[in-house]
Amino acid sequence: MNRKELIDALASKTGSSKADADRNIAALIEVITATLKKGDSIALVGFGTFEVRKRAARNGRNPATGAAIKIKASKAPAFKAGATLKAAVNGGKK
């Protein structure tokens, strides 16, 4: 499902206009992004948790040349699914 399909599905599910659904999705993405940028996490009970995970600096290899390179430490956004979502995807109930 892409963004347009998500907008259509949200609009039909809520009975709102596609423009309203688009604004709501854009606002949700902005809130999640701003929260993660501050280093906080967002927990939606039953759905899952958005969080920032830290990756340590490490040594790697350039696949083209085989030369050793240093990979800097970084932060990466992550999503951990909640029990209810996992159960729904696997066809069971929590």
What descriptors fit this protein?
single chain; elongated; alpha+beta; 41% helix; two-stranded antiparallel sheet; three-stranded antiparallel β-sheet; 94 residues
Structure overview:
With 94 residues, the protein is of the alpha+beta class. The protein has three helices and five strands; from the N terminus they run ααβββββα. A hairpin with a 3-residue loop joins strand 1 and strand 2 (48-55). Helix 1 packs across helix 2 (18-37). It is elongated.
Helical content, roughly?
40-55%
Mean pLDDT: 94
If helices are DSSP runs of H or I spanning 4 or more residues, what is the number of helices? 3
Rg is 19 Å
Question: Briefly, what is this?
Answer:
By secondary structure, the chain is of the alpha+beta class.
Set out the fold topology.
Blueprint: H1 3-14, H2 18-37, E1 42-44, E2 48-55, E3 58-61, E4 68-71, E5 74-81, H3 83-89
Antiparallel strand pairs: 1-2, 2-5, 3-4
